[in-house]
Every structure is written in structure tokens, then in C-alpha cells.
Amino acid sequence: MSHEGAGIGELRAFAVEVIREAGREAMAFYGKGRRDQKFDEDLVTEAELHLIGFFHERLRRHFPEHEVFGDAPPRKDYVHGHKGYLWVYDALDGVANFQAGIPLWGTSLALFENFWPVLGLFLMPVTGDLFYAEPDGGAFLNDVPIGISYSGEINNESLLFTYSRMHDHFRSNFPGKIRNLGCTAAHISYVAMGRAEGALMRSVSYQDLAAAQIILQASGGSIRFLDGKPFHLNEYFEARRVEGTLLAAPDGAHETIQGYVREVGQP
Fold this sequence. Notes:
Elements: H1 8-27, H2 41-62, E1 67-68, E2 85-93, H3 95-100, E3 106-113, E4 116-124, E5 129-134, E6 138-141, E7 144-146, E8 159-161, H4 166-169, E9 170-172, E10 177-179, H5 184-192, E11 198-202, H6 206-219, E12 221-225, E13 245-250, H7 254-258, E14 261-263
Parallel strand pairs: 1-2, 8-10, 8-11
Antiparallel strand pairs: 2-3, 3-4, 4-5, 5-6, 6-7, 9-14, 11-13, 12-13
């Protein structure tokens, strides 16, 4: 699709620059949670407000006509016929890790034109790893192409990421390793680069998934509901949480992984 106004190269350059800058800004708050609290909500709130303000200032300077998801109720005219750009910025993914000084957290940025994905980026500032994708241009980690290499086999070396309360809802006989890193976008990005066979997610939102889904799809994967039903991100544009459990996996792997996971109470 053609991009009105700014060219894709200019948009890409801005996105990479601003997310790198945002990562450096976030590092000023990283690991500074109060030691007498398991979770320092005040620190997280301060960091998120600072980062959101930082992004808005940069966007107004470069593309004042562009919109930002979450600024106001969704525009009724933001449909496929409306010409305009929408940025979706998730300042902190993995806030518990962030405030505790655990390096598994990141910041996400996605760009849409009339609901069509243009760019998706996920940065892990502590490691410097930047995942980046365009729908028709492939996916990259620090400028190196990445992609899913699913062989069709699940074994004891396979890896499934999950959320922290999986044991409350499911039991599993997955033959490989099951891990939770505490960062949804990292889970999805590692699936996209072939490091894991899948990632289970629950209670996520449009903002949580916007960038990571672009990266995953550009790598040859997709997100579906665990029961096999298709998942359409734009149905959650009004910022409500997704009801049910999602599975991010290579195309062709969803049914296999589903066979290893059963809801508590199911035979």
C-alpha cells in the first residue's frame, strides 16, 4: 500500500530513532524500585508518564498530524477509508521485571495506516536488542533477518512461553520446557525468531500486541485463540482486554500445541 505524506524510509528512520531514545530514557528509571516493596507502583507510574510524554513530544516535532492510540476515545472515522497514521506506543512491557532490576522488559512501537500495519518494533533496552518488521519486508533483530524455523515436531527441547497464572487455568503435558519471562512482547518476539515453539497469553490488550503481532506475522507466525478460533486484533481497538487465552505460534503449529494444553476440569 502507498503511504501518504512521509515515505516509508522516513517513517522507519523516525521509529528506530525514537524507540532507541525512549529506551535510553527508560534506563534512567530501571531497577530503582523500593527494596522494601515487592512492586513499586509509584516508580512504574512515574517512568510510564515520563516515557509517554517523551514520545508525544518527539512525534509532535516530526509528524504533528499523526495520531497516538490512547490519547482519546477511538475516532469513529478511523476506518479503512480514512487517510491517517496511528502510532501505538507501549512504554513498558514487563513492569515487574523493570522495577526490580531484572533485564527482561521492553518498549514497543507500532504504526498503522487505516488499520493496516506499517511498522512494528520491540526494543529490550538492557540488552540493546531491537526487533523490527514491516509486513512485506520481513522481520529483523538488530538488522539481521529472523524467521520461524518450525520443523513440525514438538520434543523435549521445545520451548513454550506462558503467563504467570497458567496453572490456575490449564494443565499441560507439553514435552518440552515451559517458561514465563514476564514480558509478553519478548515471548512473541522469541517465537518470531525461532527460539520457542509458542507463547500462551491471557488478559492482554491491543496496545500489548500491536507491535509484536506485526513482527510475528512477518516471520511466518500468527496469533489465534487457544481453542483454534481466529484472532483479529482490530476487534479490540477500543482498548478492552482480550477475553480468553491466545496462542502465538508458527503457522501450522497451533493445533499441535493445543493438543498439549487442557483447561482445568477437562478430561
